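Note to self: user wants both folds in one dump. Writing first protein now.
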Amino acid sequence: MKQLTIDGIAEIKPSVLCGCKGLTSVTVADGVERIGEDAFCRCRDLEEIVLPKSIHTIAKGSFYGCGALRRISCADDAAVAGLLFDGFSRDKGAKTDMYLRLLQGRLETDDAFADCIRGYAVKNREYFILKAIADDDAGLLDNVLQLDRPLTLQKTDAYILRAQGKPQTEAALLSYKKQHFTGEQLEQAEQEQLDKAFGLKPWKVADWRKLFRFGYQDGGIVIYQYLGNDPVCRIPARIGNRPVVTIASTFSYRQNAMTCLIVPDGVRRIGVGACRLPGLEEVMLPASMEEIASYAFEGCRSLKKFSLAGGKATFGQECLRDCTALQELTLPPGVTLEKGCFDGCTSLLDEQGNLIVDGRHLGTYKV
């Protein structure tokens, strides 16, 4: 008996065809509602199954051990597909083999049943990734990585470590990492690894509150005040899961210790009069800076070095007025300088009051 059509009954009894040899095709006609436990268990020659929408119960293990299947049709009905998928397995191996055969083109099936197989693969993705690494199977790995729910950076690094010595899968994981994570995420992960190596715990939001008074605005962090005593103030790029975007006007309130201010990439604005500190000697700003507001560094008479890494920031009115010790000024082309930005910066001006930066004449200012 190679082909069998089952019709005229409501239930296929448990174990009725278990271990049947030579059976290659089973078609269950509309009207059959239940398939009992082990009904087709270990029919090792079975290659094709066709099920109707009338099925509402498929006992687990109904198709267990049917390893030769190459075509499954279940009327493209999601409910029936889910029941049928459960009917194949008493252990993880049967469903795992089904997913591998689907990927390799050895199993043809309707969309609903294929979705069940992919859903199983998502839930058990780690198993398939580890199997791909063990076999150095880059094709399997690429398929698994394309499933929903992307990997975290921490997981990706863990798999890369596991894949050392497996050239195909290691290359695929490194490519995935490059495509899916930003430079900022990679830098943060690298810093966390360094902290771990030196026995330092990652800072929590509560830890940052000991150094800064800050708040939340438009999805980012606004630093309101530096509370620390360290003369070198390094603004964090992130606090918790939010980026630092603004240094507010009250930043230097009651602050006397700071001599150096280092601002990371991502910060976009420094507020009006934010850093009027007589003892401040050096300022380093990132290319992400968009605005340095009026009077931001006015009267910083000890300031000797001021640098902006890039970008096209706007310097507000008199933002560096009376920085009399300023001798090293690094600005990229394209910045906007409003009225009186460098008035009183006598150490930068020539005899005619011209401000020269890297051979560029930036204007005439008051001495």
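First done. Writing the second protein, which came from a different request thread.
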Amino acid sequence: MSPLGEPLTQWHTVGSGSGESTDIGYDLALDANGNVYVSDAHPFSSGSDQIQKFSPSGDLLATWGGTGTKPGRFDNPTGLAVDLQGNLFIVDTANNRIQEISATGQFVARWKGPGFQFTSKVAVDKHGNIYVSVIRPNRERVAQSHLHHVRR
């Protein structure tokens, strides 16, 4: 935003061209180089189930994912976080899991289980610990699950 509150550039517009989507830009995350990651969530209908990576100037650099249950595929990706190594953590909401993808789009790891049902947000601290928030009927439990991330 400019000092006057006007947008300087725009990412993730509605449409079907490069860098556009028919889904909702649910969350965004920034890496150390200023690249912007956007999750294409579709809470009300089927969608693209993708993650888009944009340069700091708004150019589309990559699109990853697509609908599915295999590693690197998503079903309603929502929350995003980037660790110090540039790996992207994605809340794969309808698949009840968290996925880790490298900065180049390669699948790294996943965590799945009943504890990730209704997961909405993810955060990674400087030590690589992963925190998730889980929305339950009538309450929100922040950091309900704590995963210690072990590098392979």
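Dump finished. Worth passing along: The radius of gyration is 15 Å.
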